[in-house]
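Notes from hallway chat w/ T.B., transcribed later so I don't forget. T.B. wanted the structure written out for a chain they're using in a teaching module, and asked if we could keep both sequence and structure tokens in one place. Agreed to drop them here.
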Amino acid sequence: MKKPQLSLPLEPDHMRRADLPQSDRELVANAIRCLEQKYLVKQDCLTNPEATRNFLKLRLYGLHYEVFACLYLDNRHRVIRYEELFRGTIDGASVHPREVLRKVVETGAAAVIFAHNHPSGVPEPSQADLRLTQRLREGLSLFDVRVIDHMIVGDGEAVSMAERGVL
């Protein structure tokens, strides 16, 4: 079995959260390492939405620009890789479904969890978020890849579209 791979972030975490005090940046970095060891190195299944939410909050919270990311999962929902696919501005990111589909197929994922942040701090899904999720879900269904969830990270919380019944 292949060891999971993590994509390098678009820039170092200490640059992404420059407004946090050094002690908080170190705490966030340690928490990310702990979660990656537990859920990515051991390849545990992501059956707990709260653990997934916490991992994604640590990765995406506090950014001053929008990031669209994907957790690629195998057929037992073990993490293959976490990857940040698109980076935008303070109020949006251009997500290209064709590129998302290509990346998912390249990894051989059986399922995915999409995530992005709202720099405004309000994690409510917009109509554009709902439309994009539906387009990605329809496209990936052609390859028998399941979209498990799409989480939106805001200030201190993350909204799960699956828990809201949107997926």
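Follow-up for T.B.: The longest helix spans residues 22-41. Might be a good example for the class.
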